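chain below, 269 aa
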Amino acid sequence: MKKGVGVLLIAGALLALVLLVACGSDSSASSDGSTSATSSEQSSSAHSLASASQASNSEAEGLSVSGEGRASAAPDMAVLGLGVSAKAATVKAANSQAQEAMSDLADSLEDNGVQEKDIQTSQFSVYPEYDYRNDEQVLTGYRVTHMLQVKVRDIDKAGEVIDDAVEEGGNLLQVQSISFTIDDTTALRSEARAEAVADAQAKAEELATLAGVSIGEPTYITESISTPYYPQPYYDRGLGYAMEEAAVTEISLGELEVIVSVHMTYTIE
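prediction:
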């Protein structure tokens, strides 16, 4: 009986030892796998950071220069800011006067070949006006203002359009502004772009010669396009009265300029 118990105890001990060894092996395998996976993730992360760093530094590597090109042409379209403004004792009366004058103005624009699609309301306002008498605010009436943005595509008729508007709008007419633009600047942009690239190329070659190196292909190119703003004359209602005495309103067109700037980076060989 004692001998059998001893055999059972020995067998149990051996089984426990086998299980312990197996668990240790699994734990080691799991630990190795986890470590391997972690190393793989770290390697991938490091590669990503290196790629991002390389991309962000791509502009700085090599020889970087800037170039500028300009192209100008006479404008082919005038944009007028004109409309009517009326004041009366009541809003209804002021609005009636303004709309009657606006109807005459619209007829004048149509007669001069301005298309409906080129006439857009830019402002419509109704507000009370006051006078100050003996430190008191006194209501003097209501003003209704209706302004339009008008594109005159036949730019040679811009002066005639203004003259006829003055005649039809009368004392209620307001000519607030006139500006000029080029309807399609594609050709000008291309011309200026070619000049900008040539300018950058010349600068890069000069710098390379001075530094005693040779340049390769461009690896980085950006551009920006701008049209300088030239303040246009501002007209108030007083101009309308003065123009009534003139036979023809003279409009000076001048030229508009498109500027293209490029930034280029070349490899150094």
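The chain has two domains: 63-72+186-228+260-268, 75-183+230-254. The first strand starts at residue 63 and ends at 73.
thats it, cya
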